[in-house]
Amino acid sequence: MPEQAAAAGHRPAPVHTHPDDVPVLTALSALADPVRMDLIRTLADHSDWTLSCSNFDVSVGRAAKSHHFSVLRDAGLVEQRDQGTKRLNRLRREEFDARFPGLLDLVLRAD
Amino acid sequence: MPEQAAAAGHRPAPVHTHPDDVPVLTALSALADPVRMDLIRTLADHSDWTLSCSNFDVSVGRAAKSHHFSVLRDAGLVEQRDQGTKRLNRLRREEFDARFPGLLDLVLRAD
């Protein structure tokens, strides 16, 4: 939403892809990365919209982290919204499960 | 088996990893590739041990194809055995399904 982007200092609002529009290759590629698996697992452990991007403790820099979130949005895995200077996150668990049954469960269960 | 390797002109017998020993990241990485998805789908359409590596019509060279089969073996997806000069293939569907329920189905269904 434009007003959210403005509130976040004119940062463009994040663009999302619905899981229904995601090819299976895109979904698998998004999940097949250790940093993104970490992000997904952390999101699954917290309530929707409670984690901002700065809350994720991953071993990559700011630009790389931003790229990883972009990949997750494009794969229909994460929804984001800006609130003030924070970008809040939600795992799109229900929609993603409907499109790719069982796939998230494989990533979230103990290996 | 050593005698198979000898029959295939001293080519070393292929080394396999059982799906039970495969981390989910390895399985996802193996599947998240268009050429390997093609190989898997072709295998699923044929009976076990009926396709040799030369039967797969993929858009990569011989060395790259060999690498892709190696990735599939390491992910517990494909079993191979040498018969004369041919390397025959089998999709490890049952074992892989037991380890990663539903994952192969997502790759094999129409996208």
Automatic annotation (TrEMBL), chains A, B:
Keywords of this entry: DNA-binding, Transcription, Transcription regulation
Q: Where is this region: Disordered?
A: 1-20
CDD domains, per the entry = HTH_ARSR
Q: Where is the HTH arsR-type domain?
A: 16-111
Question: Does the entry feature the keyword Coiled coil, yes or no?
Answer: no
Q: Does the keyword Transcription apply?
A: yes
Q: Could you tell me one molecular function GO term of this UniProt entry? A: DNA-binding transcription factor activity
UniProt-listed InterPro entries: ArsR-like_HTH, HTH_ArsR_DNA-bd_dom, HTH_MetalResp_TranReg, WH-like_DNA-bd_sf, WH_DNA-bd_sf
The name under which this protein is listed is: Putative ArsR family transcriptional regulator
